[in-house]
Amino acid sequence: KRQGRDQFCVYTDAMTHEAHDLIYKSAGIRRALENDEFELLFQPQFDIVAPTIIGAEALIRWNHPELGQLSPDAFLDVAEQTGLILDIDDWVFKQVAALVSEWKSQGFNLDGISFSVNFSGRKFFEPGLGKQLDDVIAMYDCSATQLVLEITERDMMSRFDLSAATIKDLRKRGYRVSIDDFGTGYSSLASLKNLPADTIKLDRSFILDIVTSDRDLAIVKSVMTLAEELGLSVVAEGVETQDQVDSLISIDCQYAQGYHFAYPLREDQWMLLLSAYNNA
Ligand code: C2E
Ligand code: CA
Ligand code: CA
Ligand code: CA
Question: Which residues does the UniProt record annotate as the domain EAL (predicted)?
Answer without folding.
Answer: 22-278
